[in-house]
Specification:
The complex is a heterodimer of chains A (284) and B (197). With 284 residues, chain A is an all-alpha fold. In chain B, 57% of the residues are buried. The chains are: A mainly alpha (284), B mainly alpha (197).
């Protein structure tokens, strides 16, 4: 139960240790490389790419692709195991319902990135004549690793933000005295705002789906039929409109309660530190 | 605690909250629509919208902080090789937008437009420099950064210009919408959020 670990700095340390592979890649990259070496030696009759585009680039191979280093099927497997572990950790801590919300957001972001990436890289391979199976396989593995990374980092980041209570942070500040007052208030404000942004983002993904069903829900697709050019134009218009309104709603819903948060934090901090006086007026 | 100190404290809390909110939005904006660019393994995104907004609305320092931290956090999710370029380039973008477009109320709209335009052009130029010259040079020593070269950097200018156009235009639109949100007024505790455009 990470959320109950006391003191808070120990909780932060535990979160940092769990998230270390996401930040540094260690030790997953090494583990993936070793597993990759093993798979080079073992032949199971299935041809999988064991070199990366970056390695090809160093040898100036003609089909050099700038895939990131450490993107092989072995690395994808290691990241998948790690992402599963992170998911289990989140389920244990917050329950399956909240984990599912985190995972849904992560899946959506991952799908957009990987699908558009697959489309763009395939188109590039066709246009520039790199459409050989090795190049396609390299890009597939590249996006597979990326998907595994995103499916572990996004849910963990959302979970980590919710691990700290702003009110407890203010309470803890009493024990440390005035020297840490400014820092603690700033940290409390940051945590409170981040938690609010997270809440808004999660809520607005659902709202976006409800308000822009034209190309998502089949029964709304009737008026999107037509020739290819008209279809693309409609897709573009739909994308632009839905994105613009979503950005605007995201900004407004994020900013709306900030004055209230600030006033709450300021009053609470003053009451906690002074323990007397009229906190509302700001005058002792 | 006297009135001046109380107001300073309120101002500090409000600015921290606003910068945090815009930083988080810049990170979300960078992550939510990612269209990978195979030539450089970089990606097209809409995070610049919130960097431009931060520069225009809160000034150069806030623009720099939001630009340097928000998109960099997003890069850490799946694109760690671009953290260095993003930290410098987007930080500079926010700084330039803020320096020219500013946060003052008397600044003319043309100067705001010029600030946003120059800021996003700094972003395009910054990424080009990193991908064409700096990353290949560092990549000879640290292979982790060996992901781009001059040719790839030239390819990415096009998508970056589209990204810059969207960032500047939508950023200006959002600034227009939130310019009624009087930061200083709120610090004095006299105004509320204007949530309608």
């Amino acid at each position: 139960m990470i959320r109950r670990i006391q003191p808070p700095w120990l909780r932060l340390l535990v979160l940092a240790l769990v998230g270390l592979p996401m930040i540094s890649g260690w030790p997953l990259r090494d583990a993936g490389s070793r597993l990759n070496e093993l798979t080079r030696r073992i032949s199971v009759g299935v041809r999988v790419p064991t070199s990366t585009g970056a390695e090809d680039a160093r040898t100036n191979a003609p089909n050099a692709l700038y895939c990131h280093q450490g993107h092989t099927p072995a690395h994808a497997l290691v990241w998948l195991i790690y992402a599963s572990g992170v998911s289990i950790l989140i389920v244990i801590n917050v329950g399956p319902r909240e984990w599912f919300v985190f995972f849904s957001i992560a899946s959506l972001l991952t799908t957009v990135t990987c699908l558009t990436g697959a489309v763009v890289s395939s188109a590039r391979n066709v246009i520039f004549g790199n459409a050989d199976s090795q190049a396609q396989a390299l890009w597939s593995v590249h996006y597979l690793v990326k998907a595994c990374i995103m499916l572990s980092v996004v849910p963990f980041g959302m979970f980590a933000v919710g691990c700290f209570s702003p009110s407890n942070m203010l309470q803890a500040a009493i024990q440390h005295g005035r020297a840490f007052q400014s820092l603690t208030i700033r940290l409390t404000t940051i945590v409170r705002v981040l938690q609010h942004v997270l809440y808004v983002v999660v809520a607005l993904f659902g709202a976006w789906r409800e308000e822009n069903p034209d190309l998502i829900v089949p029964r709304h697709r009737v008026d999107m039929r037509g020739n290819v050019a008209a279809g693309i134009a409609k897709w573009a218009a739909w994308g632009e409109e839905s994105l613009r309104t979503w950005c605007f709603a995201l900004l407004m819903h994020t900013l709306e309660p900030i004055p209230l948060f600030c006033r709450e934090i300021e009053q609470a901090s003053r009451i906690l530190y002074l323990g007397r006086g009229d906190a509302r007026s700001g005058i002792e | 605690m006297d009135l001046i100190e109380a107001n300073r404290s309120r101002r500090s809390i409000v600015w921290t909250a606003l910068i945090t909110a815009l930083t988080a939005l810049a990170a979300v904006g960078t992550m939510v629509i990612r269209i990978p660019i195979p030539a450089t393994t970089g990606y097209f995104n809409i995070g610049d919208v919130f960097v431009v907004l931060a520069g225009l609305w809160l000034g150069p320092m806030a623009g720099m902080v939001v630009g340097a931290i928000g998109p960099t956090v997003a890069d850490a999710v799946g694109y760690p090789q671009f953290i260095l370029a993003t930290l410098v380039t987007k930080g500079l973008e926010g700084l330039v937008v803020g320096l020219i477009g500013g946060s003052g109320k008397r600044i003319h709209i043309r100067r705001r437009v010029a600030g946003a335009t120059l800021g996003v052009l700094v972003m395009v130029a910054g990424y080009f420099c990193f991908e064409a010259f700096i990353y290949p040079a560092i990549g000879r020593i640290v292979p982790f950064f060996a992901v781009t070269d001059l040719g790839a950097a030239i390819v990415e200018i096009g998508p970056n210009l589209i990204q810059a156009f969207i960032g500047a235009s939508v950023g200006l639109g959002l600034w227009k919408a939130v310019s009624g949100y009087d930061v200083r007024g709120d610090v004095e505790g006299t105004s509320d959020v204007r949530s309608d455009p």
